[in-house]
Amino acid sequence: MELFLLSNGKLADDAPLLSYAHPQLHAMIAQRGITSAVLVPYAIIRGDHAQRAQDLSDSLGIQVRTVHEFDSPLAAIEQAELILVSGGNTWLLNQMLHEHGLIVAIQRAVRERQVPYVGWSAGCNVATPSIRTTNDMPVRSSVVLPALGLFPVQINPHYLDAHVSGHMGETRDERLAEFCAVNPHESVIALREGSFLHVSENCLRYYSARGEDFKVFRHGEPIAAFHDVLALQSLVPFSCQPA
């Protein structure tokens, strides 16, 4: 199983999509001889799906087609060499995956056919057991359905621990601590912008374009910041965890 779980799509407006993960993504594409990818763009509400696919084609150097260009979304996943799941609204994305019958299809593609999965922002969220640690608003009246569960621990993308002057609402740290208080047996990995987790051949690696840490939230424990994925040893089942 190979997963790329990115906090966000780009670090600057004029940067190519996923460019901060180019070394690892291009190496994977070359190693596997991948020539095409399928984009699941359901999270995009106000953007152009076709343009997003073209941007990804230019960024990754392969042909990228959206699920809408196939006879059916299910057929798209069944033919995919690489699955790309875009950022946007996580609630809408997860609901559409269920409505189109893609939850099991993607799980089988990734786990049985070893199709690589690349998800950023909302696409990162839905790779975890549930979407309860998304930052997005539930723009549809959908229930909290299970997500893909490809990665065993909840992730909070776009993590920010800055305190904004004059803001009297809860901070992200407080919200994530509340999640752990309500769900004391679960943990949350908080990924800053420009960082991602890479699972490959049962190995877990962490990368940050800015050399920043990630945080782990657990009930009853101090919030801890790490640079080394060995800190996740008790949370994930991967046997190989190089720094």
UniProtKB/TrEMBL annotation:
<comment type="similarity">
    <text>Belongs to the peptidase S51 family.</text>
</comment>
<dbReference type="InterPro" id="IPR005320">
    <property type="entry name" value="Peptidase_S51"/>
</dbReference>
<dbReference type="GO" id="GO:0016805">
    <property type="term" value="F:dipeptidase activity"/>
</dbReference>
<keyword id="KW-0720">Serine protease</keyword>
<protein>
    <submittedName>
        <fullName>Dipeptidase PepE</fullName>
        <ecNumber>3.4.13.21</ecNumber>
    </submittedName>
</protein>
<keyword id="KW-0224">Dipeptidase</keyword>
<dbReference type="GO" id="GO:0006508">
    <property type="term" value="P:proteolysis"/>
</dbReference>
<keyword id="KW-0378">Hydrolase</keyword>
<dbReference type="GO" id="GO:0008236">
    <property type="term" value="F:serine-type peptidase activity"/>
</dbReference>
<dbReference type="InterPro" id="IPR029062">
    <property type="entry name" value="Class_I_gatase-like"/>
</dbReference>
<keyword id="KW-0645">Protease</keyword>
<dbReference type="Pfam" id="PF03575">
    <property type="entry name" value="Peptidase_S51"/>
</dbReference>
